[in-house]
Amino acid sequence: MSYLMAIDAGTGSVRAVIFDTKGNQISVSQKEWTHLSEEGVPNSMSFDFITNWNLVCECIKSSIINAKIKSEDILALSATSMREGIVLYDDEGKELWAVANVDARADKEVKYLKDNFAGIEEDFYKESGQTFALGALPRIMWLKNNKPDVYERVANISMIGDWILARLSGVIATDPSNGGTTGVFSLKERNWTPTMATIVGLKDDIFPPTLEVGTLMGSVVRKASSETGLSNKTKVVMGGGDVQLGSAGLGVVEAGQVAVLGGSFWQQVVNIPSETLPPKDMSIRVNPHVIAGLSQAEGITFFSGLVMRWFRDAFCDMEKLEAKERDLDVYAVLEEKASKVPVGSYGIIPIFSDSMKYGKWYHAAPSFLNLSIDPEVCNRASMFRSLQENACIVSSINLEKIKEFTNVEIDTIVFAGGASKGALWSQILADVTGCKVKIPKVTEATALGAAMAAGVGCGVYGSLVDAAKELVVWEKEYTPNMQNFEKYKEIKKRWQKAYEAQLKLVDDNITTSMWKAPGL
Question: Which three-class secondary structure state does DSSP give residue 360?
């Protein structure tokens, strides 16, 4: 039998996942990794390519052992990764310097670019759909300013998923969906725009070939074969960004289709034609999709999953004990209790992530507003439900912003990621948005999307669209309660007013922002 491998380099871990050619997961091996700040460099998040390559190799070896297959039975592999993280190489292809996705060390460089190049961020955003906050140019400028000896040796750049593929194949390249998040890119042309680097005084000859997702790069080289246990007959195929490949793994591969990905951060993505111009107010991010001819308008809700984890660990020891006794997941116990709480959670207003304001984005201080001292009304169940409602409300606002500049009519949402396992959360998303919500059988779809790419590269599937239609299976469907929908409209308005007031407290230096984009 033949198999496909996906290597998924996320923010908190890396994993190797083996699928058969029918999309069934055969095995997985996962290792957590940590991105450490550099001493004396505030807001830095370095990527340790030496230690992390060893972790990648361990995952690959273990996944093959766990699958109980021969390495030569793996036809092809591909990789996906957190976006924005970059790796810089010398002229021999050796890594020089790397940072993970939310590295925010370059705040001074972001400010310098805005102050000294009038309108440059707006001009670059029109072409790339990206702002400077997590882009590559300010980070490379930081390197030039702070480590000039390293900067002078830089000959190539790639994303973290591309780095894995380069280690395996010997070929440094990128794809539009991942490379596009550097901001040095054209949405319409789906290729680098080196003149952006020229304009700001940076090297413009470091950008590697751009390959569409599913393009064959070569086979596993001898050195990588000995390090990983992979066969040198296994083909290496270009992958892409985690959100975009995750969308493909959910069947979101055609114009107008919509997904909400409910993980540590929530993303709301809408497929649009590549020639669609980003919004003038820079409120929404736009990325190349893994499907040629398509981009994705993307809203982001910061920390939704992480906030829920914090709430669980900080307050829910009793539910943890109950879950253990009943052999259930603690979130299932919390949902069971929250399902008895009425719409609106007795008026509790959570203040965590704001709706997306990509051009000038900062958050209020984390808090709950409008609490009651009545324990029957204000308790863990009602606060838990309020957090679920809030994630859906912010998602809804982001989708409305996308609709304004794309004119896409949204009636169905594909919901995936850890949050979609919750029946209550899925129903709340349907009720808040007024849309039908579909849950795929494979909810952790990013690795499946990468396996699809591998399959395209070795000829198992004709295209990613074909693979999605063949492999994606639907498990559940939720229909909105329109009475609840009307109630949530009013709750949404109240939340927006409350959040605006909380931002004013940050502006007045009374409270501390949960997060600010570099340069603000």
Answer: coil
Look at residue 134 in the predicted model and tell me its pLDDT: 85
Cα angle 346, 379, 261 (rounded to 5 degrees) comes to: 75
**Which DSSP state fits 222?**
H
Residue 40: exposure state from Cβ atoms within 10 A (0-12, 13-18, ≥19): exposed
CATH number (domain holding residue 165): 3.30.420.40
| Whether 355 and 392 share a structural domain | yes
Asked whether residue 443 is assigned to any structural domain, the reply reads: no
Last-in-domain residue among 184, 211, 243: 243
Same structural domain, 205 and 281: no
Sheet containing 86-89: which strands, arranged edge to edge? 95-99, 86-89, 156-159
What would the DSSP string read from start to end of 193-212?
A: -THHHHHTT--SS----B--
293 inside domain = yes
Number of H helices, E strands in the chain: 18, 21
Can you give the pLDDT at residue 264? Answer: 82
Work out the pLDDT band at 358, boundaries 50, 70, 90.
Answer: confident
Are the C-beta atoms of 161 and 79 separated by less than 8 Å? yes
For 74-127, the pLDDT digits (tens) are 999 999 999 999 999 999 999 999 999 889 899 999 999 999 999 999 999 999
249 alpha carbon, distance to own chain's centre: 14
Buried b (16+ CB within 10 A) or exposed e, 440-465: bebbbbbbbbbbbbbbbbbebbeebb
- Of 439-448, 456-465, 480-489, the one with minimum mean pLDDT is 439-448
Tally of structural domains, the chain = 2
**Residue 443: band (very low, low, confident or very high) from pLDDT cuts 50, 70, 90:** low
Report the distance separating Cα 496 and Cα 492, nearest Å. Answer: 6
Q: What are phi and psi of 161, to 5 degrees?
A: -60, -40
Which pTM was predicted? Answer: 0.91
Residues 188 and 302 in one domain: no
Among the listed residues 81, 83, 79, the one whose alpha carbon sits nearest the alpha carbon of residue 4: 79
Edge-to-edge strand order for the sheet containing 258-262? 285-288, 294-301, 266-273, 258-262, 412-416, 436-440, 474-478
Other CB atoms closer than 10 Å to residue 275's CB: what's the count?
A: 9
Which residues, 6+ apart, have CB-to-CB distance to 487 below 8 Å?
343, 344
- Domain C-terminal end among 191, 226, 243: 243
Cα–Cα distance for residue pair 412/4, rounded to 1 Å: 30
Residue 224 lies in domain: 3-243
Whether 474 is covered by a domain: the verdict is: no
Distance separating alpha carbons of residues 284 and 287, to the nearest angstrom: 10
- Interatomic CA distance for residues 89 and 96, integer angstroms: 5
**Region 239-248 average pLDDT:** 94
In this predicted structure, the answer to whether residue 145 has a pLDDT above a threshold of 80 is: yes
